[in-house]
Amino acid sequence: LSPLILTPFIWPAFLTDSPEVMAWMNLPLSVFNVVLLVNVMPAWRRGIIFSNSEESETEEESHEHLLMEERMNQIAEMIEEYMKEKQGYLDPHLKMDHLVSYCGINRTYISHTFKERFGGFFNYVNQLRLEHYERYMQEHKNTTKDIAAQESGFSSYQSYYKASQRLKERL
Question: Which of 59, 107, 137, 144 is deepest in the core (most CB within 10 A)?
Fold first, then answer.
């Protein structure tokens, strides 16, 4: 029915072959189509579209935030599995790329998770190494500090000492 009613509006534009007349004739046609679509649209859909858009944005943001938190929890679990259960921190050449390979997740996500959950990659690794150093020294009373540091993932006792000083400064 609508095309039959609006056809007389379009004929002058075709007859004059003018882009300006065509633009002016398409304007009422467009308005009519929008009004028609809004009236044909189901009532529940109209309520969603014309309701307060800020509410829907905050709901979407909170849902997105929950998904991000859930994803970050999964990544944090994989990081802890690699670091604590597999004792990845004992590798003196440990890099974030090792975790990227192990987890199969983008480096950006892993780096973000480290910053948010563990205070950064090096801080977390050094904290685990320092804890291991203390346990190692208690279990092996006759060992040297240098050997204990190397067994804890530090390249030398100096590396251990610097890491322990940074941890003390941070606290």
Answer: 137
